[in-house]
Amino acid sequence: MRAALLLLLTFFLSATVWAQQKTYSSSNKEALKFILLANKNIDDHLYDEAIDNIRKALKEDPNFIDARALLGDLYRMKRLYKEAIEQYGKVIAQNPEFNRAVYLKLGEIEINEALYPQSKQHLEKYLNYPGLATENSTYAQKLLADAKFSIQAMQHPVPFKPVNIGAEINTANDEYLPVATADERTLIFTRKINNNEDFYKSDKTGGKWGTATYLSNQINTDTYNEGAQSISQDGKYLFFTGCNRPDGLGRCDIFIAQKKGDDWAKPFNIGGPVNTAGWESQPSVNYDGRTLYFVSNRKGGYGGYDIWKSTLSDKGWSEPENLGPNINTAYNEQSPFIHPDDSTLYFSSNGWPGMGNKDLFVSRLGKDGKWQKAENLGYPINSNGDEGGLSLTAAGDYAFFSSNNLNGFGGYDIYKFELPVNVRPHRVTYVKGLVKDAKTKLPLEAAVEIIDLQSNTAVYQDYSGEELGDFLATLTSGKNYGLNISKSGYLFYSENFSLRNYKANKPFDIAVFLSPIEVGNKVILKNIFFDTNKFDLEAESKAELLKLIDFLQMNTHVRIEISGHTDNVGQHQANLLLSQNRAKSVYQYLVGHGIAAGRLVYKGYGETQPIVPNTTDDDRARNRRTEFMIINK
């Protein structure tokens, strides 16, 4: 990025030098008078007046090539690209070797105008000149890569049918940066009114978005701009960017606010080491809220704005880590969005080969834990304009973005489109639940933990909501998960979600009723596993067994009966023996891990205590289970 800025400065300064030189291609006195006036206008930053005087010089002498090249530079500086292309074209037609920099300038603005074949031709011409300055050559090669990529991309367009999401959200004002909760029930976005950015939200009912409302007076302000937000998958935490606030550490910082009932608590600055005296912005939080991706121009990057990440632990946010050279370039990488699969990252960049300006890219996390090389999302998702602010649904099949050139309701509007299959993330679903007291039916704030049973590691740890007892967590396909919900004074709840061959998008919606610790109350241990007709505990049972050990250690007066149960397939005596041995295996594991044998008994019941009729494979699977029951407290 620094090289590009230096190059741009060099280009414009070269125009001033041409105007100041004493030897010109014209001897027309009137033309020379106007070029000197234009030079003074440039020194005074009066660029429109400079253009008028150069036009007068060219009227006096149409072959005044120095004046024509300078006019092209001024048009280019003012982003009047069509006019600049016309003037540079006339310079080349008059004298192809007048100044080699013309080819680089022309190649650059032709990319801005989506004239990719012409850009390729002019950039290749420029790069054939000997003795080019390193920064100029590097920039020309970057532009040439853009031109070549764009030519190929336009020959192989990807599906792209954006749909405006409606007047309930979009207005004549600017709406942009949309993010949705995992269940797609709430959409939070930024709306700009009178140059003030605030957050708004829309709730979906019956498959339709409701009229957007002001998010919260606790977060939005009249004095500062709030923007570039990320919502946690359960909708309870909002990370956002705040600039020039009195509680900021730098020009722009990252803040967090927690949902409290129907409103939000006052946001707070997440502090160092994430926020610095520099510029930190555009947060994106992963599925469990413990890894934060963000944009910064802090030291140690690759140049310009880079994407970094920080992980939350008991000690706070970790020292940020740069995502590395497969994501970041010497130019600008921005607008990160980490999908709930935790291994697919979308972002915008003007450093990787693209259609010009900022394009949208995707990178996937490799098995080595490193991000793979960025992949352009393709044309016409990307264009010669700026693309950014992409976010996805949890299912990963649709994406949200904003645009001001698709004939919407006015300004920037929010759109939705179906993402091409090859750039979609891994399939995910979510589990959404309510936790209540089994007796009173009142909501409970309880610890919710989801465990990857293969690695025995927690992938989600949080508490159900204090007011509603609600929780929501995303689950990535291809794995087997155990869910445990616990609260002091209650039996814990166990559930299993097998997504190893998961193909549907249907989420898991559950109601959990926690029973108090009383004699006769039972818990089905849904994450205790045995091979068919065997009683050796499988490795995936470990997390559940450790949960049971924790429960017994916290409730030292409790005695339990461990029971094994089978379906009705096979001989009664064989089922009885199998269930007895399975219960014994759990008993032995607990004793082997410090639980006194006197607190435990075990028994096998075979098929004698079904919880559902043995009429289907699914029901027979439910009857094959391990339980424990409180026998003394």
Could you explain the architecture of this structure?
The chain is α+β, with helices and mostly antiparallel strands and 633 residues long. It has four domains: 29-155, Tetratricopeptide repeat domain (Serine Threonine Protein Phosphatase 5, Tetratricopeptide repeat, Alpha Horseshoe), CATH 1.25.40; 171-423, TolB, C-terminal domain (Neuraminidase, 6 Propeller); 427-516, Carboxypeptidase-like, regulatory domain (Immunoglobulin-like), CATH 2.60.40.1120; 518-632, 2-Layer Sandwich (60s Ribosomal Protein L30, Chain: A), CATH 3.30.1330. It has eleven helices and 34 strands. Strands 2, 3, 4, 5 and 6 form a five-stranded antiparallel sheet that branches. Strands 7, 8, 9, 10 and 11 form a five-stranded antiparallel sheet that branches. Strands 12, 13, 14, 15 and 16 form a five-stranded antiparallel sheet that branches. The chain is elongated, with a radius of gyration of 32 Å. The model is unreliable at 1-21 (pLDDT under 50). It is found in: Cell outer membrane. TPR repeats lie at residues 65-98. Its main location: membrane.
